[in-house]
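Quick log. Single chain, no ligands specified.
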Amino acid sequence: MINYEFTLFVFISALISSPLLFIKKGLLKDFKIHEELICTSTLITISLILIYIFYDKKNIMDLVYKFRNYDKLSNYILYVSLIVLSLFISSYIIFKESEMIKYRFFKVSIGIILTIILGIYLFNESINIKNCIGMLIIMGGLYIIN
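-> predicted structure:
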C-alpha cells in the first residue's frame, strides 16, 4: 500500500489536473458539450469497471446488488444531478471563456467560500478564525483580479 502524505497527494492531484482545462477547451472545438461529456463519462466508466473487476476482484453484480439496496438513493440521485449540472455549466463556461486561468481562479475561490458557508449551515461544520481570514483574503483576491 502507498504511504499517504496529504501535501504530496494534493500536489500530484493539482499537477495532473492543471492541464485538463486547456485540453477540454480544445476538445470542445470538435465536440458539442454533451458529446464530450458522454464520451468522457463512458471512458471513465469502462476504466473504473476494469479496476473494480481486476484490482478489487469483485463481480459487477456485487455493485448492482449494493446499489439496489442502498437506503439513501434520493441523496445519490441529488449528488449525480448536481455533478451533471456542474459539468455541463463548467463545460459551457470553458467553451465560451477565453481566459482559462481567470475562470479556474474564480471557480476554485468561489468554491472554497461556498463550501465553508454550506458546511456551516447545512452540514453543521465548525468555523474558526482561520476560515474567516481565508475567506476575506480570497474575496480580496477576487476583487483585485476582477
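Residues 3 and 59 are 28 Å apart (CA to CA).
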